[in-house]
Amino acid sequence: MKSLLSIFNRGLLKENPVFILMLGLCSVLAVSVSVVNAIGMTLAYSFVLICSELTISSCRKWIPKSLRVPIFILTIASFVTILGLVMKAYFPDLDKALGIFIPLIVVNCIIIGRVEAFAYRKSVIESLFDSLGMSAGYGIAIIAIAVVREILGNGTLFDIPLFGAHFQPALILILPPGAFLVIGLEIALVNAILKKTEAKRGTSK
Amino acid sequence: MKEILRLSMVLAIVGCLAGLALSSVYSLTRQQILFQEEQAIFSAQKALFPEAEEFRPLEIESLVLGSVRIDSAYEALDADKTVKGLLINARTPGYGGMIVFVVGFDLEKQLRGVQVTSQSETPGLGANVSKKSFLDQFINKSIEDPFEVKNDVKAITASTITTKAIVQGIRSSIEWLQSNDMGGTS
Asked: How far is CA A119 from CA A55, A109, A115, B169, in A?
């Protein structure tokens, strides 16, 4: 149980897919203009990652080594298409907001990376915890970026205005350059925290 | 040779399973997706003509006026089937892609308003084109008005291209309306 929890925890900070592994950043940068979009993207991404890891992990004994990459891509693409259809049918507003970034989950390198590096080699239950941890890590990162961008760049949070009419939002944070500024600062922050906790661990030993 | 056959068999089976899963999800969601798309257009039309019960499509061919494309036109009918006005669905190139919108005209040659059904403008800037605070200024404007940005049309902050695009779209719709002599005098 402890090892399962450590698999989950790894995704949160130490191997956070966005801040540390820095994989699949395009959706993170593009969608993090509002917190609502960030939460929607996290749900969509988690669905694909969890389903793909579970499927590959449970079938890993039957997947020939030389065919694994095409089978991974086929699996991921199928889940993404299913997700796209279901979103169009039942959540049209969210689908409109996330737009092209839903189909682009297919080529998101975190998903194929986790499937190849983890699910193909580990048991179903371990893969479940890995995918949950990675999804949570992705969610923390994209929401942390979106909160900063939405509050400072648009003066709102969850689309509710926070400041009076005289507040001039820093428009650059909503625009693409702002995404790079915020992600850079947050990566620096995460690294600083990690260094500090490591140094503490070193002295206590 | 045997290995190649085995591998192709495996891939074929996986492909079939994926195809099966996709086609069943597709057929399960198709009705709902069509319904949602119709609903989006209907609610935009209904927002312009709350009293209308039915929107009857007019038989027109989609045509291009400059950069604007007129997709379709509808008559708004109330419960007694009297014509209350006309709606035009059109699209105009904005800053980040096509802005798809509906513009409604009543029988007094006035705009009932404009509704944006789909756009991909910059969030926080041009995306405000679909906001009520911007679109409400078009309500009850006469089709004889000049529709000049910063003159009789209030622009979206830092989004002149988007504002000009939607205004051009409205102007072309009016042009189409007048050239087809459906200015609402009938």
From this structure: 9, 14, 5, 51
ipTM: 0.70
Tell me the mean pLDDT per 10 residues along chain A, length 205. Answer: 80 82 83 86 91 88 85 91 89 80 83 86 87 91 90 79 74 83 90 85 66
Q: How many CB atoms lie within 10 A of CB A72?
A: 20
Other beta carbons within 10 angstroms of residue A152's beta carbon come to 17
pLDDT score, position A204: 60
pTM of the model: 0.76
Q: Give the C-alpha separation, A104 to B118, whole Å.
A: 20
Contact B125, B159 (CB under 8 A): yes
Which amino acid is it at B122?
T
State the Cα–Cα distance between residues B96 and B44, nearest whole angstrom.
22
Bridge partners (DSSP) of residue B86 are B75, B105
Q: CA B24, B27, B32: angle at the middle one, nearest 5?
A: 130
Question: From the CA of B23, how many Å to the nearest CA of chain A?
Answer: 9
Which residues in chain A (84-103) have CB-CB distances under 8 A to chain B? 85-86, 88-90, 92, 96, 99
Domain range list for chain A = 2-204
pLDDT, tens digit, 9 for 90 and up, residues A136-171: 999 999 999 999 988 888 777 887 777 777 777 777
